[in-house]
Design goal:
Blueprint: H1 14-50, H2 60-67, E1 73-76, E2 79-82, H3 94-110, H4 113-127, H5 130-148, E3 156-161, E4 168-176, H6 179-184, E5 191-197, E6 205-211, E7 216-217, H7 222-230
Antiparallel strand pairs: 1-2, 3-4, 3-7, 4-5, 5-6
Helix pairs in contact: 1-3
């Protein structure tokens, strides 16, 4: 006598197999496609912003036509008309190259004595202009914070109770609080600066200050903790998922 439990499980049909293959393909293609699209879009945006400031003689189409002996205009009955043999070249990324070269050259000049003197003179003029002074100072402060201190990063990932006791959140330890924040805070010990990111965009979040004893440092790296936040808890660091058996040494 057989029961329904003795029957072999049905194999997935053709449509189910195609659906599984399609979803697997999406998972593989989507990150690559979005990355390429984002890079391509950013390069095009930089080209569109930088190329109008580049002299026509240094653009790729002018150089190629000059090597081939073509001129942009020809004389026809005493009038200058566009040359129909003019080769139009649109190479994406040329503006990025010009931008990088210009930025490196500007930085090299700014580090010298003459460059520093010119910068101080220009900033003194900007500081005398009411509206421009506020805009320039704000942008300069943001640029110095983001780029000049780019070598500094979060120290470690941590676990803190936020937004209330009993609810745990992933955070990143920035530094030990200093100055007025540390002096005026009513705590017995040290105060830690912790950045609590949001999901799935970890670039936004909250800057919170916790007593050192309330901050639990984690063994996982900052990159693994960021993956955990971005994936909304779906991607655990390798070897750190408590639901999986430990890895063999």
């Amino acid at each position: 006598m057989t029961t329904p439990f003795d029957q072999e499980p049905r194999r997935p049909g053709l449509l189910a197999g195609l659906r599984a293959s399609f979803l697997t393909g999406i998972v593989v293609i989507a990150p690559v496609g979005l990355t390429v699209w984002l890079i391509w879009t950013v390069i095009g945006w930089v080209d569109g912003f930088v190329l109008p400031f580049v002299p026509d003689a240094y653009k790729p189409d002018a150089i190629i036509n000059q090597l081939m002996g073509n001129s942009r205009f020809i004389d026809s009955r005493g009038e200058r008309v566009p040359n129909p043999d003019w080769i139009v070249v649109n190479i994406r990324g040329v503006g990025v190259v010009f931008f990088l070269l210009f930025t490196v050259m500007t930085g090299w000049i700014a580090k010298g004595l003459i460059g520093r003197s010119m910068i101080r003179f220009a900033e003194s003029l900007v500081e005398r202009t009411p509206v421009i002074r506020s805009i320039y100072s704000g942008i300069k402060q943001i640029a110095e914070t983001v780029f000049a201190q780019s070598e500094r990063s979060f120290e470690k990932a941590c676990l803190i109770q936020y937004p209330r006791k009993g609810i745990w959140a992933i955070g990143f330890i920035s530094t030990q609080a200093k100055g007025e924040v540390s002096d005026r805070a009513d705590t017995a010990g040290d105060l830690m600066s912790v950045f609590v990111p949001t999901t799935p965009n970890p670039t936004s979040g909250f800057l919170l200050f916790f007593p050192r004893e309330d901050v639990i440092e984690l063994d996982m790296s900052v990159e693994d903790a960021a993956k955990l936040v971005i994936s909304a808890g779906l991607v655990y660091p390798n070897g750190k998922d408590p639901t999986q058996p430990p890895e063999e040494a």
